[in-house]
Amino acid sequence: MTIPLDILNIWDSFLLVFIRVTGLFVVSPVFGRQNIPAYYKIGFSFFTAVILSYSIPVPDTGAYNSIFAFFLLVAKEFMIGLILGYISYLIITAIYLAGQMIDMHIGFGMVNGLDPVSNIQIPVTADLYFILTLLIFLAIDGHHLLIYTLSESFSRLPVGSTI
Description:
mainly alpha
């Protein structure tokens, strides 16, 4: 397998793009589920970062004073990705919480099902609302919107820039 020389010349910028994409895919509602293996998440993050690094203008991050400065830049990029994914996850979790409150009001407070992925008991109506919300999220192409938002974040907050 041949490695494109462009990636070798901008490996630090590519690493920062990869870190931001990984931060999004760790907590996003569809990609961040526990039943998706970590190898798939990392592979999907890698290929998405390769596509994004060729499609967005990645500025030269320049020389770093120390490893600590580069580590802070990596942490910043990871936090941007986490925030992007967490916003969408927060909306879906709010609907899950609404389903749990409805369970209490209609008398299903004691009726719980077992979630085989996380091995915990979950309310029945809340699980139904969560699954329906995920299906609606996929039906309105929310996962495409997440990737579009990620690509737009590189124009609003370029790699290596300060917030």
